[in-house]
Amino acid sequence: MAAFPTLRSLRTLRIIVSSLTVVAVAAVFIDIHHLIPFSLSSNLIAIQFAPAVLKYFFAAGSAVVAVLFVVLLTLSYGRVYCSHLCPLGTLQDIFIWIGKKKYTHRKFPYKKANYRFFYAFTALIILGIVSGSLVLFNLFEPYSNFGRLMTSLVRPLMILFNNTAVIILSATNSFGLARIPLTGPDHWNILFALVFLSGIAGLSLWRGRLFCNLLCPVGGVLSVLSRFSLFKIEIRNDTCIDCGLCERVCRAQCINSREHTVDMAACVGCFDCIGSCPEEGMGYAFQRRNFSVKKEDPSRRRVLLSISTALAATTGFTNTEDTSSAVIAYRAAKKQPIVPPGGRSREHFSQYCTACHLCVTVCPTQVLQPSVIEYGLSGIFQPKMDYTINYCNYDCVECGEVCPTGAILLMVPQEKKLVQLGKVTFVKEDCIVETKKKDCGACDEHCPTKAVKMVPYGKLRLPEIQNEYCVGCGACEHACPTTPRKAIYVTPNAVHATAKVRESKRKEPHEATPEEFPF
Amino acid sequence: MDRRTFLKNGIGFSTLVGTGTAGLSALIPHGLCAQQSQSLPYDLIAIKGGEPDVMFTKGMEALGGIGKFVKSGQRVVVKPNIGWDVSPARAGNTNPSLVTEIIKQCYSAGAKEVLVFDNTCDNWTRCYKNSGIEAAVKLAGGKIVPGNTEGYYHPVTISGGRNLKDAKVHELILEADVFINVPILKSHGGAQLTMSMKNLMGIVWDRGTWHRNDLHQCIADFATYRKPDLNILDAYSVMKTNGPRGVSEDDVVTMKSLLISTDMVTIDAAGAKLFGIDPYDIRHIRLAEEQKVGTAALGNLSIKRISL
What we know:
Structural class of chain B: alpha/beta
Radius of gyration of chain A: 28 Å
Order of helices and strands of chain B: HHEHEHEHHEEEHEEEHHHEEHHE
Oligomer: heterodimer
Largest sheet of chain A: 2 strands, antiparallel
Strand order of the largest sheet of chain A: 1-4
Shape of chain A: elongated
């Protein structure tokens, strides 16, 4: 077949595509100076299968295109997504490549994937999503894990590097580069990222793409689809010289060179086998014959059922909807995470956020920070508003612009300015004006809607709250100088409310140039 | 190693190897080093009825020109109010065209470089951009410098302070040959009005301490530390209500005025009168006069009034 020489270039194409993808996705996550216009990289993020599927459930739009694209791609060519578009896949390939450089005899001989565990685990994760818990999904979903590796490990290093550069540059009187405050993540997020990184590195050095064929939920779904793919990699009995090189280069342990079989359900489509074959022994051909799927093991159903019951029990336990009444006590208020604007409600946000932390990276004030289990175990690592770090910029909608899953929905600034994330509580007894009998006004100063306004209080001025105008941005709370507790703080709304529009009223004439100076 | 030790070590290192002017001066705070300018014809210049840049030009002509303050080869720091992420029409930040004109004049007087910064309240990149000041600075060939992290600020002692005994001040101020303070006149929930003395809160790091320990007293205390060489109070558009951030353009009135003085207490007293408040009703003005920062008794001063 004349097509063979060009088939070899599939490997080169894969290396180019995957390199571009991983660099672009990583760049978006570690773009500490916000230099990359999101329109550039958004398509690569949008095509990430897991967030697109979540988005597809409720907000079709572009997600339909992304999901259909990946599904059709897999039904046509097998799991090429895993080697071309998945950033975590490419990260594993990098480890595999390093491993091969360092230990030249490293190879991953054929080993039948443990489909029983693999598919059961994928099904369990899907059941988790359906029953409202993202804990397993977020722990194993490849795109978000890659995002967290970037934001929790690489980004802080970039900031340290940047700030060192600033010091060196300031000695040469150059101010083009700004220092960036290192605001997170917390040690739990760093620890998990380190554990995940070691795990993924270990697995890939040990057995290549084992993660993709055992634990990855995206891999699981695509593996099932790839069983029906039109194009399949095959060993051509007529030209194969039985050298076994294809099996030695395979990172997915899916080629059995002795039996001349390629397991397309485990193949990640790296095309190394085709690229390395010394003869023309590998084919990648259109096959009409359907792969005969083995009959389902009846015991699997029982397993799934029991796991899903266990899971439902867990989520029921952690998803405490304790929003019975307004929580007045400061600590009680602080225990609840504040959902970012566009997140609609705790329920909506928690149900769709895969905790990739892209919003954490782009947030210009860094008020968005990774949580640990504040949303419950089912919402592990999902971002929350942290008013100890900063407050939400009134005119900013960047988190909604970048969110790939629709957990944070895009709003125009006009719309966002009326979203009420929570309401403020003012504790007069803790306020400087009351405790020290001195003027302060830090809360009023920062409030963008004047929901907090200073009113005469003897010779001083004391804050007065009009919660109908409050957007819950946390500016007053962040600015409040009292310790250890803030005298003014936001209690989150479990479901975002709408703030009242301030009626425009001009108190003074527009033009007031003085006739004479009053001095 | 945490970030701060890291940065501190970095500064220490740069000092050690002798390349760090920033690091070096950080260790030698020079406090009251405002250069004594030649005697001026007036204590206060008040201009009204023109565009901001025109008013500034006319005012400086009356005062004897910018050359009285800026000498050839000097490093000038201009400190406008860039505190808020609002458009120029909202008058939450100093008028950009005024900033451009000031920088241009500094260069015409031979300044080596003109640097501009503020420790903003809202996110600094958005403030710099949306206030129009970043563009205004670049237009005039000045440099806009970040003030967003603690690393830029170095500890100083305020010997004349009653409540505020120390603060961390931006390194640009510590290294400046000439310091020009360019506040905008606005209403303020805590300080009543924000003018030249209140504007100095943007050159320090920890403002919370001020709010905790009697804001008015701290404002007056810090005014004893480093007197700007020149104060220019922008009262072209004035936020009469809901200051200092404002809610809408309805808070703003056009007063087309500008004040210039080397004395912060004088210019703030005049600003208060312009706004319609008795200066002695504003405690930090009273305290600052008491602490000999300057004089608020406008009746005793020579004032040049210019109507355009």
